[in-house]
Amino acid sequence: VLALNGKIKEVGEKILASKGKKVDFASALESCEEAGGTLATPMNEEENKAVLSIVKQYNQYAYLGIKEGGTSGQFKYINGTPLNYTKWHQYEPNGKGTEKCVEMYTDGSWNDKKCNLYRLTICEF
């Protein structure tokens, strides 16, 4: 259903989809998982650009499938593995434990952000 309603982008082995819905981090993750995927998680420059293309279509910041772990300033993929690729905006991450989620700006760079804000949901399958 999600794929038919929204914008779809294929990158490598992944398919990215969004229907332009803005919700908090937990709801975004839940809706992606209900659809059989997870939140978009760029693991290289090519995937980051693909996510960015959807962010630009909607002109909305989007949550990524990345969260701060137990250590302040240490971010991990949703599945708990360490990041092997990052695209932090200058001077980010700077939340020092208060901003546990990650959003993508409309220029493709990342910012740590609180998890209760409404951001674009982009799922990957």
Structure write-up:
It is found in: Secreted. Pfam families: Lectin_C. This is Pulmonary surfactant-associated protein A. Its main location: secreted. It is a single chain. The chain is 22% helix and 29% strand. It has 125 residues and is an alpha+beta fold. It has a single domain (7-124), classed as Roll (Mannose-Binding Protein A, Chain A). A hairpin with a 6-residue loop joins strand 5 (62-68) and strand 6 (75-77). The model is unreliable at 1-5 (pLDDT under 50).
Topology record:
Elements: H1 2-5, E1 7-11, E2 14-18, E3 22-23, H2 25-34, E4 38-39, H3 45-58, E5 62-68, E6 75-77, E7 101-104, E8 110-113, E9 119-120, E10 123-124
Antiparallel strand pairs: 1-2, 2-10, 3-9, 4-10, 5-6, 5-7, 7-8
Q: What is the share of helical residues?
A: 10-25%
- Computed over alpha carbons, the radius of gyration is 13 Å
In DSSP terms, counting alpha (H) and pi (I) runs of 4 or more, how many helices? 3
The low-confidence runs, each spanning 5 or more residues with pLDDT under 50, are 1-5
The CATH topology:
Mannose-Binding Protein A, Chain A
Number of domains: 1
**Percent of sequence in beta strands:** 25-35%
- On the 0 to 100 scale, the average pLDDT is 93
Measured between the Cα atoms of the first and last residue, the distance is 13 Å
DSSP summary, beta strand count: 10
- Structural category: alpha+beta
Written as H for each helix and E for each strand, in order along the chain, the element string is: HEEEHEHEEEEEE
Please tell me the CATH architecture by its name: Roll
Largest sheet: 4 strands, antiparallel
Please report the first level of CATH classification, the CATH class. Answer: Alpha Beta
CATH superfamily: Mannose-Binding Protein A, subunit A
